[in-house]
Amino acid sequence: MAAARVGLASHALHASSSSSTLVRRLPHSRLALLLYPPRILPTYLRSCPYVSAAPARPRPRRLRAMSQSAGTPYAAELAAAKKAVALAARLCQSVQQNILQAGVQSKPDKSPVTVADYGSQILVSLVLKMEAPPSDSFSLVAEEDSEELRKDGAEEILENITELVNETIVDDGSYSIFFSKEGILAAIDDGKSEGGPSGRHWVLDPIDGTKGFLRGDQYAIALALIDEGKVVLGVLACPNLPLGSIGNLNGSSSGDQVGALFSATIGCGAEVESLQGSPPQKISVCSIDNSVNASFFESYEAAHSMQDLTSSIAEKLGVQAPPVRIDSQAKYGALARGDGAIYLRFPHTGYREKIWDHAAGSIVVTEAGGVVTDASGNDLDFSKGRFLDLDTGIIATNKQLMPSLLKAVQEAIKEKNQATSPL
Ligand SMILES: Nc1ncnc2c1ncn2[C@@H]1O[C@H](COP(=O)(O)O)[C@@H](O)[C@H]1OP(=O)(O)O
Ligand SMILES: [Mg+2]
User: Fold this and answer.
1) Known active-site residue 210
2) 0.85 surpassed by complex ipTM
3) Nearest protein Cα to ligand 1, atom 18
4) Of 29, 172, 333, 412, which is least packed with CB atoms within 10 Å of its CB?
5) Which atom of ligand 1 is the closest one to the Cα of 299?
6) Does the global pTM surpass 0.95?
7) CA-based angle 266:192:188, to the nearest 5?
8) Are strands 4-5 and 104-106 parallel, antiparallel or unpaired?
9) 117 among known catalytic residues
10) In angstroms, rounded to a whole number, what is the distance separating the alpha carbons of residues 99 and 278?
11) Which residue in 21, 114, 117, 366 is the catalytic one?
């Protein structure tokens, strides 16, 4: 059965943001920054060693004003999180447009890391520090650290990141902040928190689905807040995902607008809005109760999930439709608004899931009325630090389908284990 591919790269790239940012441009912008009158930094940033207060530019803010409904839990944090990922998404889209010039690094695990990965992390961290209500200590659990950038030979990429971040900040106009190169390195290392069961921790994947990003396909900027071990809010910026729905299974879109921002706060439901700014709409998972009519999402990359196992699960459920393969937590967003009924993720043996790959996506789905568990039906536990400790894989669907999905999953795993057992 052929899988549906949801890439939409060329469409998305043409529809993307106004900035013409190139990674290597803009020597004049620093000068421009110094010409404007100084603006006062919030108290909690004044002690920050790596930024200097640069002048505000008298220009309109391009990001929409985020409403903060009084009485809603975590309203200010949610507004800050949305603004953070929207700004990071602008940087990422601009780099994706220029991907061939942007340069790519390799992590020790060989996964690609781009200039945009670091730039996105810095911008999210900056916006959270500027906009979220100050707490006792700022804690960010994020994917990237500065180790590779501090090595000999990384000077050019560091220069590129510094210019890109500063240009994005100037272009946005919200902040009068200028990063030095040392400041960039320090800002990246803001994301070194270990998380854990107590206190508040922001959790970030600055570019989830780097392979999709490099291919020009789907990716997400995924940000969540963990409070006392529980995910309490999540936002997912999906710059290349159609706003309406992914449409039918051969990947065509139901509408022209591209760029979706999913959000959810605990107890308040889930919403989607346009990344460019539109009123948020409540979303809910699909109401299918017969798995024969279901479709399922899985990784685009076969190396990220066992497609033989997912196909056996689908067969047991009687699923007729081909798998819908999408990169990143965009899958959680699409599931949450009912584009499909099931999400199956079964990494190959030995892979350890990180909390930033599921925190935002899982609350978007659960607040949309869905269920997210491991292969044994246990809730995901985000209180154990940077990794999830779970059984075999992650599955998500609506409440009606979960019992039969869990049964099919367990049968398929048992059969797979028997087939591979030496006896
Ligand atoms: N070998 C692997 N198995 C499973 N997931 C992986 C593997 N390598 C990287 N990932 C992570 O899987 C996520 C993407 O999953 P999917 O393919 O379903 O979109 C990314 O977070 C990616 O990490 P990274 O963010 O470092 O690229
Ligand atoms: Mg990721």
Assistant:
1) yes
2) yes
3) 299
4) 29
5) 18
6) no
7) 105
8) unpaired
9) yes
10) 28
11) 117
